[in-house]
Records
---
Amino acid sequence: MNGRVYDPVLGRFLSADPHVDDPDDSQAFNRYSYVSNNPLSYTDPSGYFKLGDALKIVGSLVIGYFTAGLATPWLTALNLGKFAMAVAQGAAFGFGSSFSGSLLNGGSIGDAFKAGVIGAVQGAAAAGVGQYFNGLTGSKLLIEGGRAVAHGVVGGLAAEAMGGEFRHGFYAAAAGSAAGSIAGAVIGNGSEPWKIAARTTIAAVAGGTASVLGGGKFANGAFTAAFQHLVNHESSYLEDVGETFSGYALGFFEGFSGLSAGDGSMGSTVGDQGRSVGIGIGRAVQFLNLAKGGIALARSLGSRLSASTAAAAARRATITVNAAAGAAAEVRAAEALVAEGYQILGSQVTVRTSQGLRVIDHLVRSPSGQIIAIEVKSGNAVRSAAQLGKDALMGSEGAVIVGKNAPDFLQGTQRVIQTIERRF
């Protein structure tokens, strides 16, 4: 299945993750940990990528789209012109999407408002660009090409405003705009949820791919492209979305709470659907409350475990704690080595000595060019006699580098490698 194997006792993967998904997060450099040591927030079925980040992006985009949809009836009542209406819808989308995205990523309310204002400006500009090109006549190819370039400029400026690079935002927004136009022609128009999702997905994949080719991150490019696409190509369906969501929300409230929200939701099919879902979730909450009582009872029974079972559990807990401490020490060691001018060639690199295999925590190149093995220890941990013997052999007769975590130019070579112990 091409997935990585996880040991629940050690709390670590048995092979290194070849991807560093967030260079600004020190936990991302611990290539044996599960979802950056944050399993309550993320899942990782294959062992390569966290699903939580993708869900946050999708969630913020959906919230932004529904925000614009709910605002549409109010904006319509203001009798705005076609251009002003599009700009206002874009601002509502941008604020809702960026505000919620900041909160979903752990930002404060202040950070969320700042992101929301930047998003509103970006959404208004992107929608204005789209509305302007909608009114042009002439060559379709030239119009869509100009639209893509203009959207690219808006995306690049927004990327700079959020601390990124102009070119990454430009590539993603331009590619997403062009792909959105093509998706509309291939899939067809319509406000059906699956069509909106399909067209937006095509734009997001195009934007993410363009961002990666330009040296940026796929997730950032996909978000920028999907943002631009929803503000422009899907804006004509916002009124339908707003009415549908309002009816569903009112029906859900009635079903979940048992209270009446008035006659607005119960006269429509979506209102009845929302009420049914609300009733189901309400009953699920009741079931969970009963389950809590069962869990409490099970815990009280669990306290009567035999002494041998408790001792085994304590040993597993000690192994897990030690493994976590070792992993954290390796991360701190890597940061310190880089700060001292060392180049990390590979982590958890396997070498073959005349006495057997030895795993090196960090294989580094010193500022003077010497290749050195770094052994990281934490707390009271010490090297075993077998490890000391293999390290001595590495420094005298040398060892063959066989681990796949080593760079290609060292694979299969025999080198004399001195070992330095670093304690954290």
---
Amino acid sequence: MQDASGLSQGSGLVLRSLGVVLTANHIVEWSTRAYVRSNDGARAWADVIWRDAQADIALLRPISPLRGAEISWASSLPQPGSEVFALGYPAPLGYGGGVAITRGIVSRTLRLGTIDYIQTDAAVNPGNSGGPIVDACGNLLGVVVAKFQGLEGQGVAVAAPAIARRMGSAGIASVPQVPSPQPCGPNVRPQQPEEAVRLFYQLASSRRYAEAYCLMGRAITSRTDLATFTGWFRNKVAIVPVTVTVVSRQVGEATVEALVLSSDSVGGPIVTRWYREVWRVRYEDGWWRLSERLETTPL
């Protein structure tokens, strides 16, 4: 997005349920309007309808709706050392370079006054401001608002729970919040088909392939061993499920669609692409497992 003066540029996040764009206030600090463009190329002018200068966040309402995937918000602060991803349009490429995704960990969380922040070593640059920080399941952890000068790659995001609280205090409709998923292990048995798919991407992105393999159903494990399964991810740098939706469901079986942001590298520059993947998920041995990948479509 770009403010009306054309002097300030940054990133943002479409909140589909509210019909608004969430971004950093300093991008539109001196404007009441900005020009926004979504990842699918749609463009629109958007009016600033609310701003919180202290937290450095703002909401804009596009004059024509922008498409965006509904995203779940983390209900608690991430633990130091946990894996995170920063998404945005860093300068100098901006929109011309497409959405960029960088990977890192949470360095620490901190509270200044009444606002919680997340410090991460996921690389952020000018233009990332206003963009989301997400976990491996695609849950929103925070919004980038600053970069530590002199500390390469050290970025700061205002935490999602803090944003939700301040939006709630301003009378703005609440945002969806979910508990962070647990890692796959002997005591974790996905009891919903979408939970199994989301957990699969989380574990694969964290390179916990043996645990991800335990989410595969008999239709896959009968013809694919762990070594072959691990080879599926040879060129993957990151896999972030932005949305996971149950398309259809019957007794013991469901079809689940995932909108996935995948970052790949084949001996050269990292390329980030959007994919739509559709899975058949079946209830086997007391929990849901991925049985067949029905479709993978680049977007």
